[in-house]
């Protein structure tokens, strides 16, 4: 019986987090990529201005909590606001693929994360038309401290993932 108690103790102890809270730190600055701040989606391919379903833009961001340091991670909780404007939608579904890159002081990429948020366009039932829609995505990141120097300045760059066709049309 004693053996089972000792085994249970080690199993439970091994499942607990070993990261210890150290304190709060300055959050990285956040920039929006000038070339990837806007997004378009078409009803058919190839995409033209005549068959656009919606346009979207990265509008704002907010750190939901102070950035925290543990002995292993920089913990960040970031909210990003997207504004979606209907053009000529055939359906209400919105899909926005975007990235979040962490850059060091020399603008080298330290970490890159890819996300996709899905929602539905707001419908004005009285007029039966789609309205501008705000979508907020909340990201929780744990950046390993062995990837960064906590005494250096870092920045996030947020942008939409765009293929060549969309980039050309937005240029």
> How many angstroms separate the termini?
72 Å
Continuous helix count: 2
Helix content: 10-25%
Task: Give the amount of beta strand, in percent.
Answer: over 45%
Low-pLDDT segments, ≥5 res: 1-16
Mean pLDDT comes to 87
Basic shape: elongated
SSE pattern, N- to C-terminal:
HEEEEEEEEEEEEH
Structural class: mainly beta
The number of E-state strands comes to 12
Model description:
The structure is a single chain. The protein is mainly β and 171 residues long. The chain contains two helices and twelve strands, in the order αββββββββββββα. Strands 1, 3, 4, 5, 6 and 11 form a six-stranded antiparallel beta sheet that branches. A four-stranded mixed beta sheet has the order 2-12-7-8, with no helix packed on it. A two-stranded antiparallel sheet has the order 9-10. It is elongated. The N and C termini lie far apart (72 Å). The relative contact order is 0.24. The N terminus is likely disordered.
Describe the structure using short key phrases.
single chain; 171 residues; four-stranded mixed beta sheet; 2 helices; 12% helix; elongated; disordered N terminus
Question: How would you summarize what this structure contains?
Answer:
This protein has 171 residues and is mainly β. Helices cover 12% and strands 53% of the residues.
């Amino acid at each position: 019986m004693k053996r089972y108690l000792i085994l249970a103790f080690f199993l439970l102890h091994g499942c607990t987090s070993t990261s210890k809270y150290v304190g709060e730190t300055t959050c990285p600055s956040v920039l929006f990529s000038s070339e990837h701040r806007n997004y378009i989606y078409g009803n058919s391919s190839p995409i033209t201005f005549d068959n656009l379903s919606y346009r979207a833009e990265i509008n704002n961001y907010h750190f939901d909590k102070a950035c925290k340091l543990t002995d292993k991670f920089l913990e960040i909780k970031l909210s990003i606001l997207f504004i979606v404007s209907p053009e000529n939608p055939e359906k209400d579904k919105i899909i926005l693929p975007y990235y979040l890159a962490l850059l060091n002081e020399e603008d080298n990429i330290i970490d890159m994360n890819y996300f996709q948020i899905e929602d539905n366009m707001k419908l004005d039932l009285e007029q039966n038309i789609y309205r501008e829609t705000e979508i907020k995505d909340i990201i929780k990141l744990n950046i390993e401290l062995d990837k960064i120097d906590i005494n250096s300045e870092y920045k996030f760059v947020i942008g939409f993932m765009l293929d060549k066709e969309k980039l050309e049309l937005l240029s």
